[in-house]
Design goal:
With 496 residues, this protein is of the alpha/beta class. It has three domains: 5-226 and 425-433, Aldehyde Dehydrogenase, Chain A, domain 1; 229-404, Aldehyde Dehydrogenase, Chain A, domain 2; 455-495. It has helices at 14-31, 34-50, 52-63, 67-93, 136-144, 158-170, 185-193, 205-217, 240-252, 272-284, 299-313, 337-340, 356-365, 379-388, 423-428, 455-466, 471-495; strands spanning 96-98, 111-118, 121-125, 148-152, 178-180, 198-202, 222-225, 229-234, 264-268, 317-321, 327-330, 347-353, 369-375, 393-396, 410-411, 417-418, 420-421, 431-438. Strands 10-11-12-9-8-13-14 form a seven-stranded mixed sheet, sandwiched between helices. A six-stranded mixed sheet has the order 5-4-3-6-7-16, sandwiched between helices. The chain has a three-stranded antiparallel sheet with strand order 1-2-18, with no helix packed on it.
Length: 496
């Protein structure tokens, strides 16, 4: 039995035992050179690539996603992320020499190095809308950084998590470093309650905030990805066919459950009617079987119907129940639930705006701003607008796909959370800095008790030189510093 299998949380002592094992194992792992840890991650990627078919099948069964979507959205991006971590991780985590400012020449010269150290035991809670891609790269990054991991997957993803964990074990990961805690909300609370050194959470806002409060009570940090609204802005001059097809694809991917899929589209008035017609056609053209709509009577279907009814009651128009099961609601306005609430489902809301400024105001006023997109025929215009948007990611003329790139980071704004996941910024969330300064064992320290007459004048002259502008002022400042040093040496000699 592997160490991972041994901690499946079927008994009350499962999580405490996992945490004890992790605390006993991580220090040795942390002392290894990052290149050695990278070798384990790289081997795990190769094993996963060789055994991807059964994992893809398990994901498809658990999520209802098509085989093509599982391979394109789960398998390939995960493998790419692991390969990138194995290649890029050692360089990012290596120590670096720090420079020394000449402005503080008075202090004894020394050597300063920045080191990156793991937190210890991290808890990773992953969601059910992506069973591998939103989970395995996070786990790999934590291990790459030298941590031990307690991984609490979504209940639907437990089988995938155990399979993935066994792959890391076969890749040479030492025992005790990776534990899968299978269970529900109570298990997640147990993981945090055992005192993980840092929490990484992706999922619903209410569950995430509850776990964060528990973590904060212990004075320990967390990274929260709480989903949120994704708003697309379609500007006059955009390729409307491209925008409609891209937004429709992003909406229908994964049954509309991706938190970075557009739920609200803001369209400039001059192209509004044309875009609505093209979006309707794009949603209706999805082949049967390529999209899994919520089952009738399910919680997701009931919430969908509630949101649509609320919008229609406030003046919105129902354009079409597409054959795919997706719903297009036009003429929405602020205050409607389809505008204000996060929607993980097949509802696409469309609103007209009079200007780019109005679109910016809509997007930036939203509670959860994980991502946004801009569709425009003018790339410079798109770049300028993207910089004005208060969102962690902004895509220009694209939807959803940039998330799959291994170097791309997700970082929420507002109610969508804080901290970063994936990419270089996500990797560096797994470590904390330590600076070690080394000075000679012997020798006088001029800066100890600098009370001699003239010391203050020397400091003043140094500042004048450091901030002098122009050649003449620099020469004058240098002369003033030299004169102050002469006066200081004389005063020191006289008092000796």
């Amino acid at each position: 039995m592997t160490p991972v299998e041994s901690v499946q949380v079927d008994a009350d002592h499962g999580v405490p035992a996992a945490c004890r094992a992790a605390r006993g194992a991580w220090r040795h792992w942390a002392r290894l050179d990052p290149h050695e840890r990278a070798q384990v991650v790289g081997r795990a990627a190769r094993i996963l690539a060789a055994e991807a078919a059964p994992i893809a099948e398990a994901i498809g069964i658990a999520s209802g996603r098509s085989a093509a979507e599982v391979w394109s959205a789960e398998i390939v991006p995960t493998l790419d992320a692991l390969r990138w971590l194995a290649h890029r991780g050692p360089r990012a985590l290596g120590s670096q020499a720090l420079g020394r400012s000449w402005l503080q020449w008075y202090f004894r010269a020394g050597r300063h190095r920045l080191h990156w150290e793991p937190y210890g035991v991290v808890g990773i809670v992953t969601p059910g809308n992506s069973l591998l891609f939103l989970a395995a790269p996070q786990v790999a990054a934590a291990l790459m950084a030298g941590n031990a991991v307690i991984w609490k997957p979504a209940p639907a993803g437990s089988a995938v998590a155990f399979h993935t964990a066994r792959i890391f074990s076969r890749a040479g990961l030492p025992p005790g470093l990776l534990h899968v805690a299978a269970g529900g909300a109570e298990t997640a609370r147990d993981v945090v309650g055992e005192g993980v050194d840092k929490l990484f959470f992706a999922g619903g806002a209410s569950a995430g905030i509850a776990l964060y409060r528990l973590q904060a009570e212990r004075g320990r940090p967390a990274v929260l990805e709480l989903s949120g609204r994704h708003v697309a802005a379609v500007l006059a001059g955009a390729d409307l066919d491209l925008a409609a097809s891209g937004i429709a694809w992003g909406k229908l991917a994964n049954g509309g459950r991706n938190c970075v899929s557009a739920q609200l589209v803001l369209v400039e008035r001059s192209v509004y009617a044309e875009f609505v017609a093209l979006a309707r056609a794009a949603l209706a053209s999805v082949p049967a079987g390529d999209f899994h709509a919520p089952a009738p009577g399910s919680e997701a279907a009931c919430r969908r119907d509630e949101l649509v009814s609320d919008a229609l009651g406030r003046g919105a128009r129902l354009i079409e129940h597409a054959a795919s099961g997706a719903i297009l609601v036009a003429d929405v306005s602020p205050g409607m639930r389809v505008v204000e609430e996060e929607i993980q489902g097949p509802i696409l809301a469309v609103a007209v705006v009079e200007s780019q400024a109005e679109a910016v105001a809509w997007i930036n006023a939203g509670g959860g701003r994980l991502s946004a997109s801009v569709w425009t025929g003018d790339l410079a215009q798109g770049e300028a607008l993207a910089r004005r948007l208060d969102a962690g990611q902004v895509w220009i003329n694209e939807e959803l796909a940039p998330v799959a790139q291994p170097e791309v980071t997700l970082a929420g704004r507002g109610a969508s959370g804080f901290g970063a996941s994936r990419g270089l910024a996500g990797l560096m969330e797994m470590v904390r800095p330590k600076v070690i300064s080394r000075l000679p064992a012997r020798g006088r320290r001029r800066h100890y008790f600098p009370t001699a007459p003239g010391v203050e004048g020397m400091f003043r002259a140094t500042i004048r030189l450091g901030f002098a502008v122009g050649l003449v002022k620099s020469f004058r400042a240098a002369g003033a510093l030299a004169l102050s040093l002469v006066r200081l040496m004389r005063s020191t000699r006289d008092t000796a």
